[in-house]
Design goal:
Strand order of the largest sheet of chain B: 1-8-17-18-16-19-20-21-22
Number of strands of chain B: 35
CATH architecture of chain A: Alpha-Beta Barrel
Order of helices and strands of chain A: EEEHEHHEHEHEHEEEHEHEHHHH
Helix content of chain A: 40-55%
Oligomer: heterodimer
CATH class of the largest domain in chain B: Alpha Beta
Shape of chain B: globular
Largest sheet of chain A: 8 strands, parallel, barrel
CATH topology of chain A: TIM Barrel
CATH architecture of the largest domain in chain B: 3-Layer(aba) Sandwich
Structural class of chain B: alpha/beta
Number of strands of chain A: 12
CATH superfamily of the largest domain in chain B: Thiamin diphosphate (ThDP)-binding fold, Pyr/PP domains
Shape of chain A: globular
Largest sheet of chain B: 9 strands, mixed
Helix content of chain B: 25-40%
Number of domains of chain A: 1
Number of domains of chain B: 6
Radius of gyration of chain A: 22 Å
Number of helices of chain B: 40
Distance between the termini of chain A: 46 Å
CATH topology of the largest domain in chain B: Rossmann fold
CATH class of chain A: Alpha Beta
Largest interface: A-B, 43 and 64 residues
Chain lengths: ~325, ~1200
C-alpha cells in the first residue's frame, strides 16, 4: 500500500504523525514514536508569552528577597545566572530529537510579538527543525478588537515568518473566523506551505462548589473530528497548499475520513497521550488493512474523495445539515 | 606573567577566590558571616572551576562545624590540601579538633570572619571574641585589615602553613571586611603557583596516612612521655614568624605589596602609638596620616601575625621614640587583667626588657572598642590618642560607647571628620525588596572597574525580615579607601521609599551642599509641602540640591513591577556626576545586559526601557527659602508605651541605638516581653478588610496570619455601646455563644500585607465570587479609623478559655501571646508558634534553637512574645543552634524537680495546710483548661496559707508553689537544627521519656542563613550546596522518631488541614512523654509568592510529599494502631506540586533531563514512603501485660 505523502515539501512515509504534545520532550517517547511509525514529529509549542512571563516571574522570585537581611543576602547562588529561561531548552530539545530519530521534526511556535515570532523562528531553523508550525493560538478577549484586525495580524505574522526562514512553514489556526474558507485562501497567498486545522483552546470549566474557574486540560474525542472534516472538505478544491488535520483522530476510521475530506497530514495527539505512542501504529495498520480490503492503491487516490466538490451529497456539508440535525432532536 | 585584573568584590569572595584555587577538599557548614565563602567555593566547583593543579576541588557541606572540622582533619591526614570557613560559635565547635590538627603539625588554613560569640545575647556582627577564644589551640593567627589584604593573606597563610607545618587561622572582621565591597587587584593563578610551590605540596602529601606506607597518629600517651612529646614541636613554632615574613617578602616581590608581621605606620619619631589588629588598623592609619600632616608625633602598629607572637619582630617594629602605647582589643575577657592583645604586648615588653633586647619602656594602656561591629571612627581614634597625651591616661578604657556605669569610656567628638573632599560619599535608603543594595553593588562595579577610581560599598540591613530597610554606604575616590566605618557626611543621599521621610532622619548625614534624591508620587511642584518640617529645614540649612522622581510610576510604565533598582540607579548616575551622564547610561545598560542577559531578553529590554524612561521623569526641585511644613516627624512609639520602651527601644527603632549609654541596659541581657506592639511599622501597602455580611465565622484567617494581625472575638453586645463609629460587628452564628456579637478585626499598623488570610478565606460573595469576606484594600485611607477600631477591639474582654472548644475556630478565640514578629510577610512558621502560644502560652517555657525563629522571636529592638491580662505568657530563651533539645530538656528537669519538691513539702506540711487543699493540689486533674484554672486557684489559696504560716518551710514552698500548676516545655527550631546540627541531642532527648514537646518548623532548608541544603531538603530541590538539585532523599525524621515506639510523632501542614494541626498540638502536649511535631512551613527560600503558601501546602500533602499523620503511643493501650493517617494516598503527581516553586524549577531549567531523573526518583520515594506508612497504620500491637504496667 502506498502511503507516501508530501507535506510541507517533506517526503513522508505516511500521512500519520504525532501532533504537537509534551511527548516530544521525552527522548524515550520520541524513540517510541519513531518505532510506532510516525512519519514526522511535531513538537509542543514554544510559547513566547510563557517564556517572557517565566523570565520576569522567576527573576522576581529570585530577587524579591535578595539583599534584605544581613545573614541571607541571597537565597540562590549567583549560579542562578546559569538559569536558562529563554528558548534554550526548547532549541536544545530540537537538537536532541534530531539526533535521536530520522523522521523530520516540525517545530511549533506561538509568539506574541513580532520580534518573538521572527527571532524564535530563526533560532528553530538554526537548531535543525525541518519545518515550522506557527500556532496562532490567540483569544481576542477585547470587544474593541475587530475580526479584521485579528486576521490582518495573523497574515502579517505568517508573511513575516515565511520571509525570515527558508524551511517550510505551516500555520495552525483556530476555527473561529467569520469566513474560514476565505481567510485560509488569503493565507495561502502569503506563501505559507500548509495549514493545520484546528488548534484546540483549553476550555475552562466552572467549579460550582468552590465558585472557581478550572483550567485543566481535557483531551479530544472523535466527535471533534467532524468540524475539521467539514472545513477540509469545503476547502479542498479551493487551495493548493496541503492541509493537516489536528483534533479528533483516534482510530483508523477517523484517519480514513480525514484523508477522504482532503487531509494530507494526519496529526494524532490526544489518542497518543491517552494510550501511548503505539496507538499510532494501530491506526496506521488499521488504515492499511481497510484500504487493502477496499482495494485502494494509495492514500493519494483516496485524498479529497469526499470533499465538497466530489462527494455525492455536498449539501450535507452545508448549512442545511445543521437544520436537519437539529430537527432530528425533537423529543 | 599574565596581567592582574582590578575587580570589585567583598572580603569573603576575595578570600574564597584564593582558598578555592589552592585546595583540593573543602568541608564547610553555613554560619554568618562566613557562609558566602563556602557558597562561592561550592558554586565554583559546580561550574567546574579548577584549582591551580587543574582539578576541581571537592566541596562538601557537613552537619555542623564540628562535623566540618572532623572531615577536615580526616582529609588532611589522608593527604589532601584542605580548607574550611567559619566564624563565632562555629569556630568554637572547631576548637577540639584544632588542638589535634596543630598537635599533629598539619598544614591547614581556616579562614574566619571574626564574629561576636553569643553571651548575654547573640550577635551576628564582627569582633574578635571568637578568634581570641582559639589563641591557645596551637594555630598560627594571621589577621587582615581589608578586602585586598584578606585576598593576599589567604595566599600568604596558605604558603606559610605548608612551609612551617603549623596550621593557620586567617581572619578578618566579620561584615566590616567580609561584606565590604571594594576594588582590589586580583591575584592570578601564576601568583598562586609561585607562592604555593610543588615541593611544599609534595612534602604534605608524603606525610599522608596510606596503607602503602603505613604510619599511625593519634595515639594515647601517658604521664611518662606526653609532656616531652608535646614540647617536641617547639622548634616549628619558633621558626614560623620568620617563615611568614619570608613569604610576605616573596609576595612583595611578586605584587609590590609589602607586608610585615607587625607593621608600623606613622612618624619615625612618634611618641604615642596605638597597637591594633583588623579593620580598625586601617581606620587608625587614616587618622595617623591626618595627624602627621598636622605635625603630631603619632603612629600605629598593625598586628598581622598574632600567633606565634614574635617579640623580636614586635619590638623592632616600634620607633625608639615611643613613650606611650594604647593597645586596642576588639573583644572582652571579663575578669582578666586585660584583653588578650594588651596582655601579650605587656608581656612582650617585659620579656624583651629582661632579655635585654629592647630599651623601650613605654606606658601601656588598654582599650576595648568595636564589639559586635560597633562603629570605630577616626573620631574615636583621636579620642584614644588624646587620652594617651594625658599625664595620667586611663589604664583600661572603652571607646565608642558611653559607659556611665563603670566610667570606662573616653569622650568622643562626634563632629570630628577627616574625610577628604575628593572622596564622593553617597547614602541610599531602600527596602530589601526594592533592589537598592543590588543596584548599588552594581554601581560600585561600574565606577571601580570602568574608571581609575577606587570604590567601597558597605550595607546595613534591618533586624526585621518583613519590610526590611537597607542603608547603603558608597564611597568613590582617587586613592585606596581605608574608611572602614559608616559615612557621616554624605554628598548624596537617596531615599527610595517615600514612607521613610517620617521615620528616619536621613538628612542628618547630609553635608553642606549635598544632593537629596527622593522617590515620591508627588510632582516637583507638589512635593515640598509633603515633607516633614525637619526635612525642609535640613534642605534649606545645608543648601542642598533636591531632585524627585516617581520611580514606581516609571517602573509600572516600563513593566518593571515594583523593582525600582534600575530607575534609582540611573537617577544616581544622572545627577551625582560621578561619571559623565552618557557614559554612565551606557555603562548601566552594559551592566544590565551582563546581569540579565542569560535570564532572558524580556528582562533586559524592560530594564533598558526603564533607564530611558527615567531621565525624562527626573526633576530638580527649587528649594524655597523658608520652612512651610506644619507637621513634624511623629514619635516612634506612643505615649502610652512603658518607660523602658520610650527611653530605650524607641531610640533603637529610630536607628540611634548607638547613643544609648551602658546604664540603659539590663546587666544580664534580660529584655522586656510584649514590646512589638509598640513598634507600629506600617509596612503594609494593603490590609484586609472584613465584610461581616459574607463571613461564615470560621476564623481561618486568624489561624493562618503569621503576625497575629487579624483576630476574631466573641463578646457581649453591651460592649458595643462605646464602639468607634466604623467598628464592625455581627451576630455570632454558632449555638455555643448564642446572643453574642462577633468581630474580625485587623491590626492595620502591624499587618505586613501578605494577603495569606484572604487566600484561605472560604467565604465568597455568591453573586461576585471575586469578593470574599476579607479582601485587601489600601492601608493609608484605612489606617486611622482601623487603628482606633483595633484599640477598641483589644480592650474587649477575652473569651473564657474554659468554655472554648479546642478546634480551629475555638483556638482562635484564645489570645495569641506571640504577635507582630519581624518574620517575613507570609511566613509559614509563625502561625504554628502563634497557635502554640494560644493553646499553652500562659504556662509554656520555650527553648528556641538559633535560626529564623530565634531572630524573629528575639531580635531587638522589640520582641513578639507577650503576656495575657493576668501577666502570664511564654518564657522564652535561645541557647545555641546545636544544643536546643538538651536546653529545653534541662528546663523540664528543673520544672519536674521543683514540682517534686513542692509535692514533698506539701506532703510534709499536709496537716498544717488542710488535708482537703493538699489532696486537691496533689490529685488535681490538669488535663483541661478548667482543671488548670482550678489548680491555679488552689495554689493561690495555698500561698495565702503559707504566708500566714511564715515558717522557713512555708517560705520555701511558696517560692516553688507555682510549679504545682502544669508547665509545658516546648523545644522549637528549624530543620537545620533538628535534622542536622542538633540531631544528636534531639535523638537523645526523645529517648529519655520526659515530657517535652518538640516543634520542628520544617522549611526544608537553612532559611535564616540564606537557603543552604539541610538533610530535610527534598530530592530535586535546589539549595546552596545542592545547586544542581539535591540528589539524596529527605531524611524521614518522623520514621526515626516513631522507631522508639514511645514517642508521640505528628506530621502536620496547617495550610492543608488546620484541624489536624490543632489536634496534633493538643495530643503532643497532653502526652506525658516526648512528643515531636514536624510542621511543614512554606518559606521565601522556596521561591514563590507566599500568598500561595497554603495552596502549596495542600499540593505538598495531596502529592504525598508531605503525608499527614499522628503516631500516638497511647493508642496501643486501646488496642488500636498507634499510627493514624490523616491524609489520603497521593492524588496528584509530585511534579504538579514541585513545579510551582523556583527551587525546583531552576533545576529543571538548568538541566531538564537531570531534573526528570530526580523527579522520577523523588516520586518513587514518595510512593514507597506512603506505602510504608499506610502499612504501619494497619499494625496494632499487643496491649501491655500486667508485668509491664
Amino acid at each position: 500500500m502506498d502511503l507516501t505523502t508530501q507535506y510541507l515539501g517533506l517526503n513522508l512515509s505516511s500521512p500519520i504523525m504525532a501532533g504537537a504534545s509534551p511527548l516530544a520532550t521525552d527522548m524515550d517517547m520520541v524513540r517510541r514514536l519513531e518505532d510506532a511509525g510516525t512519519s514526522a514529529i511535531v513538537m509542543h509549542s514554544l510559547f513566547e508569552e510563557q517564556i517572557t512571563r517565566e523570565q520576569l516571574g522567576t527573576l522576581q522570585d529570585l530577587e524579591l528577597h535578595a539583599e534584605s537581611s544581613a545573614e541571607a543576602t541571597n537565597f540562590y547562588l549567583p549560579a542562578a545566572d546559569e538559569f536558562r529561561m529563554g528558548p534554550d531548552n526548547y532549541l536544545e530539545t530540537i537538537r536532541k530529537i534530531k539526533a535521536a530519530v530520522k523522521v523530520p521534526v516540525i517545530a511549533s511556535l506561538n509568539g506574541t510579538t513580532a520580534r518573538g515570532w521572527l527571532n524564535y523562528a530563526k533560532e528553530m531553523e538554526k537548531a535543525g527543525a525541518d519545518a515550522l508550525e506557527l500556532n496562532v493560538y490567540y483569544l481576542p478577549t477585547s470587544p474593541m478588537e475587530t475580526g479584521d484586525a485579528v486576521e490582518k495580524r495573523t497574515l502579517e505574522i505568517a508573511h513575516a515568518v515565511k520571509s525570515a526562514v527558508t524551511i517550510p512553514v505551516a500555520v495552525k489556526l483556530s476555527p473561529f473566523f467569520s469566513s474560514p474558507a476565505h481567510f485560509i485562501k488569503v493565507l495561502e497567498g502569503t506563501g505559507v506551505d500548509g495549514v493545520v486545522m484546528f488548534n484546540r483552546f483549553y476550555q475552562p470549566d466552572i467549579d460550582i462548589e468552590e465558585l472557581d474557574v478550572l483550567s485543566d486540560l481535557n483531551l479530544s474525542n472523535p466527535s471533534e473530528l467532524r468540524l475539521r472534516l467539514r472545513w477540509m472538505a469545503i476547502l479542498y478544491s479551493h487551495i493548493a497548499m496541503p492541509m493537516a488535520v489536528s483534533g479528533g483522530v483516534h482510530s483508523a476510521e477517523d484517519a480514513i475520513k480525514a484523508t477522504m475530506a482532503g487531509a494530507t497530514a494526519i496529526q494524532m495527539t490526544s489518542a497518543l497521550l491517552r494510550h501511548g505512542p503505539e496507538r499510532l501504529k494501530m491506526v496506521r495498520e488499521g488504515m492499511v488493512k481497510w484500504m487493502e480490503e477496499k482495494e485502494y492503491e494509495s492514500v493519494a487516490q483516496m485524498r479529497g474523495s469526499m470533499s465538497l466538490m466530489r462527494c455525492p451529497d455536498p449539501t450535507a456539508f452545508e448549512r442545511a445539515n445543521y437544520m436537519r440535525v437539529l430537527n432530528g432532536w425533537k423529543i | 606573567m599574565a596581567e592582574r585584573r582590578m575587580v570589585t568584590l567583598d572580603g569573603n569572595e576575595a578570600t574564597a577566590s584564593v582558598a578555592h584555587r589552592t585546595n583540593e577538599v573543602i568541608a564547610i557548614y553555613p554560619i554568618t558571616p562566613s557562609s558566602n565563602m563556602g557558597e562561592f567555593s561550592d558554586e565554583w566547583s559546580a561550574q567546574g572551576k579548577k584549582n591551580i593543579w587543574n582539578t576541581v576541588p571537592s566541596v562538601v557541606e557537613m552537619q555542623s562545624e564540628a562535623g566540618a572540622a572532623g572531615a577536615v582533619h580526616g582529609a588532611l591526614q589522608a593527604g589532601s590540601l584542605t580548607t574550611s570557613f567559619t566564624a563565632s560559635q562555629g569556630l568554637l565547635l572547631f576548637i577540639p579538633i584544632m588542638y589535634k590538627i596543630a598537635g599533629e603539625l598539619t598544614p591547614f588554613v581556616l579562614h574566619v570572619t571574626a564574629r561576636t560569640v553569643a553571651t548575654h545575647a547573640l550577635s551576628i556582627f564582627g569582633d574578635h571574641s571568637d578568634v581570641m577564644g582559639c589563641r591557645q589551640t596551637g594555630f598560627a593567627m594571621l589577621s587582615s585589615d581589608s578586602v585586598q589584604q584578606a585576598h593576599d593573606f589567604a595566599l600568604i597563610s596558605q604558603a606559610s602553613t605548608l612551609r612551617s607545618r603549623v596550621p593557620f587561622m586567617h581572619y578578618f572582621d566579620g561584615f566590616r571586611t567580609s561584606h565590604e565591597v571594594s576594588k582590589i587587584e586580583l591575584l592570578n593563578d601564576e601568583d598562586l603557583r609561585m607562592m604555593v610551590t610543588d615541593d611544599l605540596v609534595e612534602a604534605h602529601r608524603k606525610r599522608a596516612l596510606t596503607p602503602d606506607a603505613p604510619q599511625i597518629r593519634g595515639t594515647a600517651q601517658n604521664p611518662d612521655v606526653f609532656f616531652q612529646a608535646r614540647e617536641a614541636a617547639n622548634g616549628y613554632y619558633a621558626a614560623t614568624p620568620a617563615i611568614v615574613q619570608a613569604e610576605m617578602d616573596k609576595f612583595a616581590k611578586l605584587t609590590g605589596r609589602q607586608y610585615q608581621l607587625f607593621e608600623y605606620f606613622g612618624a619615625p619619631d612618634a611618641e604615642r602609638v596605638v597597637i591594633v589588629m583588623g579593620s580598625g588598623a586601617d581606620v587608625t592609619h587614616e587618622y595617623v596620616e591626618w595627624a602627621m600632616a598636622k605635625g603630631e608625633k603619632v603612629g600605629v602598629l598593625k598586628v598581622r601575625l598574632f600567633r606565634p607572637f614574635s617579640i623580636e619582630h614586635f619590638v623592632n617594629a616600634l620607633p625608639s621614640t615611643v613613650k606611650k602605647i594604647a593597645v586596642l582589643d576588639r573583644c572582652k575577657e571579663p575578669g582578666a587583667l586585660g584583653d588578650p592583645l594588651y596582655m601579650d604586648v605587656v608581656t612582650a615588653f617585659r620579656q624583651a626588657k629582661d632579655a635585654g633586647t629592647t630599651t623601650l619602656n613605654p606606658t601601656v594602656i588598654a582599650g576595648r572598642y568595636g564589639l559586635s561591629s560597633k562603629e570605630f571612627t577616626p573620631a574615636m581614634v583621636k579620642a584614644v590618642y588624646d587620652e594617651l597625651a594625658k599625664d595620667a591616661p586611663k589604664v583600661h578604657f572603652t571607646v565608642g560607647i558611653i559607659d556611665d556605669v563603670t566610667h570606662t569610656s573616653l569622650p568622643v567628638d562626634d563632629a570630628f571628620d577627616i574625610e577628604k573632599d575628593d572622596v564622593k560619599r553617597a547614602m541610599f535608603f531602600g527596602l530589601g525588596s526594592d533592589g537598592t543594595v543590588g543596584a548599588n553593588k552594581n554601581s560600585i562595579k561600574i565606577i571601580a572597574e570602568e574608571t581609575p577610581n577606587y570604590g567601597q560599598g558597605y550595607f546595613v540591613y534591618d533586624s526585621k525580615k518583613a519590610g526590611a530597610v537597607t542603608i547603603s554606604h558608597l564611597r568613590f575616590g582617587p586613592r585606596r579607601i581605608r574608611s572602614a566605618y559608616l559615612i557621616k557626611q554624605a554628598n548624596f543621599i537617596a531615599c527610595h521609599q517615600t514612607s521613610f521621610l517620617e521615620k528616619y532622619d536621613m538628612l542628618c548625614n547630609a553635608g553642606q551642599g549635598a544632593t537629596f534624591l527622593l522617590n515620591t508620587p508627588y510632582s516637583k511642584d507638589e512635593v515640598w509641602n509633603t515633607l516633614p518640617k525637619e526635612v525642609q529645614q535640613s534642605l534649606i540649612d545645608k543648601k542642598m540640591k533636591f531632585y524627585v522622581i516617581d520611580a514606581y510610576e516609571v517602573a509600572k510604565a516600563t513593566g518593571m513591577g515594583v523593582r525600582i533598582n534600575t530607575i534609582m540607579q540611573t537617577c544616581f548616575f544622572a545627577i551625582s556626576g560621578v561619571l559623565p551622564r552618557e557614559e554612565a547610561i551606557e555603562q548601566i545598560k552594559k551592566a544590565i545586559k551582563k546581569t540579565y542577559g542569560k535570564k532572558g531578553d524580556a528582562v533586559v529590554q524592560k530594564n533598558y526601557a526603564a533607564v530611558d524612561h527615567t531621565l525624562a521623569h527626573l526633576y530638580e526641585v527649587t528649594v524655597p527659602a523658608t520652612v512651610t511644613s506644619t507637621y513634624a516627624m511623629p514619635p516612634f512609639v506612643s505615649e502610652l508605651a512603658p518607660e523602658f520602651t520610650k527611653r530605650v527601644q524607641a531610640v533603637m527603632m529610630a536607628g540611634k541605638g548607638d547613643l544609648l549609654p551602658v546604664s540603659a541596659f539590663p546587666v544580664d541581657g534580660t529584655w522586656p516581653v510584649g514590646t512589638t506592639k509598640w513598634e507600629k511599622r506600617n509596612i503594609a501597602l494593603d490590609i484586609p478588610v472584613w465584610d461581616n455580611s459574607i463571613c461564615i465565622q470560621c476564623n481561618k484567617c486568624a489561624m493562618i496570619c503569621p503576625h497575629a494581625a487579624i483576630r476574631p472575638k466573641v463578646y457581649d453586645p453591651a460592649e458595643l455601646s462605646k464602639a468607634p463609629e466604623t467598628f464592625k460587628s455581627v451576630d455570632y452564628k454558632g449555638a455555643e455563644f448564642k446572643g453574642m456579637k462577633y468581630t474580625i478585626q485587623v491590626a492595620p499598623e502591624d499587618c505586613t500585607g501578605c494577603g495569606i488570610c484572604v487566600s484561605v478565606c472560604p467565604a465568597k460573595d455568591k453573586s461576585n465570587p471575586k469578593h470574599k469576606a476579607i479582601d485587601m484594600a489600601p492601608q493609608m485611607p484605612l489606617r486611622e479609623a482601623e487603628a482606633k477600631n483595633y484599640a477598641f477591639f483589644l480592650d474587649l474582654p477575652e473569651a473564657d478559655r474554659t468554655t472554648l472548644k479546642l478546634d480551629v475556630k475555638g483556638t482562635q478565640f484564645m489570645e495569641p501571646l506571640f504577635e507582630y514578629s519581624g518574620a517575613c510577610a507570609g511566613c509559614g512558621e509563625t502561625p504554628y508558634i502563634k497557635l502554640l502560644t494560644q493553646l499553652f502560652g500562659d504556662r509554656a517555657l520555650i527553648a528556641n534553637a538559633t535560626g529564623c525563629s530565634s531572630i524573629y522571636g528575639g531580635n531587638l529592638p522589640t520582641t513578639p512574645y507577650t503576656t495575657n491580662r493576668e501577666g502570664r505568657g511564654p518564657a522564652w530563651c535561645n541557647s545555641l543552634f546545636e544544643d536546643n533539645a538538651e536546653f529545653g530538656f534541662g528546663m523540664r528537669l528543673s520544672i519536674d524537680k521543683n514540682q517534686e519538691q513542692a509535692l514533698e513539702l506539701l506532703h510534709r506540711m499536709g496537716s498544717s495546710l488542710g488535708d482537703e487543699l493538699v489532696a486537691g493540689l496533689v490529685n488535681a486533674d490538669q488535663t483541661t483548661e478548667a482543671g488548670i484554672r482550678a489548680q491555679r486557684e488552689r495554689v493561690a489559696e495555698l500561698k495565702k496559707k503559707l504566708q500566714a504560716l511564715g515558717t522557713a518551710e512555708a517560705k520555701w514552698l511558696e517560692l516553688i508553689a507555682d510549679y504545682l500548676v502544669k508547665k509545658s516545655v516546648w523545644i522549637v527550631g528549624g530543620d537545620g537544627w533538628a535534622y542536622d546540627i542538633g540531631y544528636g541531642g534531639l535523638d537523645h532527648v526523645i529517648a529519655q521519656g520526659r515530657n517535652v514537646n518538640i516543634l520542628v518548623l520544617d522549611t526544608e532548608v537553612y532559611s535564616n542563613t540564606g537557603g543552604q541544603a539541610s538533610k530535610s531538603t527534598p530530592i530535586g530541590a535546589a539549595a546552596k550546596f545542592a545547586m544542581a538539585g539535591k540528589s539524596q532523599p529527605k531524611k524521614d525524621m518522623a520514621m526515626i522518631a516513631m522507631a522508639y515506639g514511645n514517642v508521640y510523632v505528628a506530621k502536620v501542614a496547617m495550610g492543608s488541614r488546620d484541624a489536624q494541626t490543632v489536634k496534633a498540638f493538643q495530643e503532643a502536649e497532653s502526652f506525658d512523654g516526648p512528643s515531636i511535631i514536624l510542621a511543614y512551613s512554606h518559606c521565601i527560600a522556596h521561591g514563590y509568592d507566599l500568598v500561595q503558601g497554603c495552596e502549596q501546602q495542600k499540593l505538598a500533602v495531596d502529592s504525598g510529599h508531605w503525608p499527614l499523620f499522628r503516631f500516638d503511643p497511647r493508642r496501643i493501650e486501646q488496642g488500636e494502631a498507634p499510627l493514624q493517617m490523616d491524609s489520603p494516598a497521593p492524588k496528584i503527581s509530585l511534579g504538579t506540586y514541585v513545579r510551582n516553586e523556583t527551587r525546583y524549577r531552576m533545576v529543571e531549567q538548568m538541566n531538564p533531563e537531570h531534573f526528570r531523573h530526580l523527579l522520577a526518583t523523588a516520586q518513587r520515594e514518595v510512593t514507597n514512603r506512603f506505602a510504608t506508612y499506610e502499612n504501619m497504620a494497619k499494625l496494632t500491637m499487643p496491649v501491655k501485660t500486667a508485668d509491664e504496667k
